[in-house]
Design brief:
Blueprint (H helix, E strand, L loop, with lengths): L4 H12 L3 E3 H9 L3 H8 L1 H18 L3 E3 L8 H7 L5 E4 L2 H8 L12 H19 L2 E4 L5 H11 L6
Parallel strand pairs: 1-2, 3-4
Helix pairs in contact: 1-8, 2-4, 3-4, 4-5
């Protein structure tokens, strides 16, 4: 959450001369409502099923840069789909997250005590992120352009 995956993903796609896709945007477009509304109206399990399907469709049908929602790695089948792909985990600490997004109400999993909940989410998810990632790139105190270049360098991808 707030790591800059959309901005960085778009920069990387542009530099590689490929298309960019975000599975969260796919879900919003398909459902016609925001993710926070899906969480409130249908609950997290329903959203995670939508997410699983969106990731599977995107991995199967998209050849460019793909950004996944922060919880996508919670699903074992999704992690299996990502095995062997050039996955980058954009990491940051809680202070950076607060600075970037304020951990506000638009984040359904952070509605109460956002700093504590963010830390707990990251403690649970970080091992899953590192399991699927070929590289880990810290985003703290870096511009999106610097992060994009670090990802390209770490994955040994060439600019277009």
């Amino acid at each position: 959450m707030g790591s800059g995956k959309s901005t960085v993903g778009e920069l990387i796609a542009r530099q590689l001369g490929v298309s960019y896709r975000d599975t969260d945007a796919d879900i919003v477009a398909a459902q016609g409502r925001e993710i926070s509304d899906i969480f409130v109206d249908e609950g997290e399990p329903y959203f995670r099923e939508l997410e699983r399907e969106a990731v599977a469709a995107a991995v199967a049908g998209h050849g460019g840069v793909l950004a996944l929602g922060g919880g996508a790695v919670l699903d074992e089948k999704t992690r299996e789909l990502l095995t062997g792909l050039p996955v980058a985990y954009l990491s940051m600490d809680v202070e950076e997250a607060v600075r970037r997004v304020g951990l506000g109400a638009a984040r359904p999993l952070l509605a109460v005590n956002p700093r504590r909940q963010w830390r707990e989410l990251m403690e649970a998810r970080r091992p899953l992120y590192t399991e699927v990632a070929r590289v880990v790139v810290a985003t703290d105190d870096r511009t999106p352009e610097e992060v994009a270049q670090a990802v390209l360098d770490a994955l040994e991808l060439k600019n277009a």
